């Protein structure tokens, strides 16, 4: 007789879950892996704080989940090196938003 075990892991907020099935010694175990999705968190920052101006001022550089990795080196340069973005005094990144962008960029090793 095979048994089914359910195990759930949870980590922080803004989570991404995947259901998986594993067989161990003839027993099947279904488990859910919950991990922080750094790319999604970074996109939320880009969309909320960057795309607002880009839509008006630079419509050819709107960030999406599909193109953001291609723009990663420029994002790093403009936000963390030159500190030119976001422009103006109206839109500021919080410390948490900077961390989300930096954590995502660090996973790419493209800067």
Structural commentary:
By secondary structure, this protein is an alpha+beta fold. The protein folds into 2 domains: 33 residues; 71 residues, no CATH class. Strands 1-3-2 form a 3-stranded mixed β-sheet, with no helix packed on it. The relative contact order is 0.15.
Mean pLDDT: 79
Largest sheet: 3 strands, mixed
The oligomeric state of the chains shown is single chain
- Number of separate structural domains: 2
| Arrangement of strands in the largest sheet | 1-3-2
Number of helices: 3
Taken as a percent bin, the fraction of beta residues is 15-25%
Low-pLDDT residue intervals, each spanning 5 or more residues:
1-16
The amount of helix comes to 25-40%
Quick synopsis:
With 111 residues, this protein is of the alpha+beta class.
What is the topology?
Blueprint: E1 4-8, E2 15-24, E3 27-36, H1 38-57, H2 72-81, H3 95-108
Parallel strand pairs: 1-3
Antiparallel strand pairs: 2-3
Which structural traits does this protein have?
3-stranded mixed beta sheet; 40% helix; 2 domains; 111 residues; 3 strands; alpha+beta; disordered N terminus
